[in-house]
Structures are given as C-alpha cells and as structure tokens.
Amino acid sequence: MGPVWYREAPVPVPTTARSEDGVRILVTNDDGVRAPGIAALARAAHGTGHEVVVVAPLVDYSGSGAAVGPVHSRDGVDYESHVIEELDVPTYGIDGPPALAVILSCVGGFGPPPDMVLSGVNHGINVGRSAMHSGTVGAALTGAHFGLRCLAASIRWGDEPVPWETPASLAAALVPLLAESPPGTVLNLNTPNLPVVEVRGVRSGRLARGGSIRSAVHDAGAPPHLPGDGHPHVSLPPAGSGTLRLDLVAPGPSRPGEDLDSDAGLVAADFASITALVGVREAGAEAKPVVDEALDVLSARLDQVRPGRETAAARRSAPSGGA
Predict the structure, then answer these.
(1) Is 234 found in the same domain as 171?
(2) Could you report the per-residue pLDDT of 219-262, keeping only the tens digit for each?
(3) Are residues 80 and 220 in the same domain?
(4) In terms of Cα–Cα distance, which of 157, 94, 145 is closest to 277?
C-alpha cells in the first residue's frame, strides 16, 4: 500500500468529453473494489473501446453519500493495486469512500483526470430519498462538481445469480451519449433484477417520495415491543445505552404497477428507470422571502451586540455608489 496526498484544486471544465484519444472513464462504486458489480461495469466500460481506470473503496462504503471523510486530519490516503478477473485495466482500492476516489482521480492521483464517471453497479436500487444517501450516486454527483459526465447504475437486490450484465450493458450503451452531453450531466440508472431480455422497457422516472428506513424502535435486549404492550412506539430512549432496531422497507410502491411515474415504481414494475440529477446548488427565487427575513433577523441580532454602529439593515438598504 502507499499514500496518495490529497489537495483539491480547481480543475478546468472540459466542453466535451471527447479527445483525440477517446474518453477516459473512471469506474468506481460504494460496495468496494472486490464487489462483482464493479467488475461487470468495468468490463462493460472497457468494451466501449475507451480508456478505463478503476478506483474504488477497499471496503464497503454503502450509504456514504458524497462524504470524503476526515481528509484534513490525515497525512494521506492509502491505496493498493487490485486485479479484476479477465480484465487488464489499472485498478486500485483506496482507504476512503467513493466520492474521495473521484476527487483523487480528478486531481491527478491516478493518472490523467477522467472525462467520465461510471459508478456502480450497486446491489440494491438507489431511488427516491435513498439516492441522497447513496455512495454510488454521491460519487457521480462529485464527478459533476468537476464538470464530468457521470452515471450511477444500480440493480434491484436479489439472490444469486445476479444479472449484473443488465445494468452494465445499459450503462455502456449510454457512454456515447454521455460523452456529448453538457458538462456536469448526471444520470441515475436503476434496473430490475432480471436478464436484460426480460426488462419491460426503460422510462424516465421522477424521484419517489419514499425511503428505506420506516421507523426505529428501542431495543435493550428484550423481545421486540408489540402494539398495545404499553411501550410507546415513539419516545425518548432509556437512560444509558441501547440499540435502535431499524424497520427497513424496500423502496417502491406496495403493489407493482402503482406510481409508474416514479423511479421506484418503474423498477417494481420491471422497467429500467433513468433520472437526471443535480448536486448541491443554491435555491432559486422561491427561497428569496425566507432569505430576506433571515437577513433581517440576523442583522437585528448584530445591531444588538454592536450598539452605536450604523445598523446592518440600514447598510443593506442604502443605495450603492457609482455613476
């Protein structure tokens, strides 16, 4: 293993992902560099004829979102080389989450910066609110921060054998389109756990409103609490320490065929879903009234602690100078 020194710096935003040598594709994931999903995606990416490099976490970082970890309190980021069976591309595992793998690749830690990020294939769909917490999606959104064209690919959870080639082949088919897309494009692809020939089709789905965690129940080692046993379902935890048992549900409608305009509903009905995403950005005009009131509240607070000075509100309302 060896360290990669981390320092994020501005990166020029390319107007096109194409160069004389084709597209350089970074493949990453949050399940770890040894996961079968990333192997399938890397093989599919390599099959497009473009240059491929794989950089992914050494261990499972599912649910890490776009986190990078405490980079400012560590001397470097350890990495180690890895081999994907039947594939000859540079492959590395890093001691950190997938968003950090993207950043390190973009600032030159693993050769020339990539033009495109393919993230996945995640075992478990990333739809609705769950997408916000997904390391798979977080890696793609991080790539968009650098002006890259990015795709997150996930397949519905299922027993072996998992048809990894379904999302991998669909992701590879999108590479030419992504290469010509505007900088910062992010697509979120979710597929059913079916061979590609059994997928009913592909549609654009809005983000579903549901998530995976339905509730959390106190558990101090006793049997699970049942309705009507006198233990409130929602209450403060007991003193000391304990465990909150999570009630997890699969994302999507309760019955297939419902909510077919959402990503979760489409996958539940055996369609592949594609959704365009954006990362962190400032709110639009709809937030202006709240921002204006917040400025007034905070300006008044500053005026209270700085008596005798021109009020902040007066300074804000004063006309600016100029011709």
Answers:
(1) no
(2) 655 555 454 444 445 666 666 677 777 656 666 555 655 678 99
(3) no
(4) 145
Question: Angle between the 98-106 and 135-145 helix axes, to the nearest 10 degrees?
Answer: 20
| Same-domain check for residues 176 and 197 | yes
User: What are 266-314's pLDDT values in tens digits?
Assistant: 999 999 999 999 988 889 999 999 999 999 999 999 999 887 676 655 6
Q: Do residues 203 and 232 both lie within one domain?
A: no
**Judgement on whether residues 103 and 228 belong to the same structural domain of the protein:** no
- Give Cβ neighbours of residue 209 (< 8 Å, ≥ 6 apart): 128, 129, 262
Together in a domain, 244 and 110: no
Domain that holds residue 291: 287-314
Q: What's the predicted TM-score (pTM) here?
A: 0.80
> Which amino acid type is present at position 134?
S
Tell whether the torsion through CA atoms of 59, 64, 67 and 73 is positive or negative: negative
Could you give the number of structural domains in the chain? 3
Closest to 116 (Cα-Cα) out of 146, 81, 82 = 146
Is 321 inside a domain boundary?
no
Q: In whole angstroms, give the CA distance from residue 148 to residue 142.
A: 9
What's the helix, strand, coil split of the chain in %, to 5?
30, 20, 50
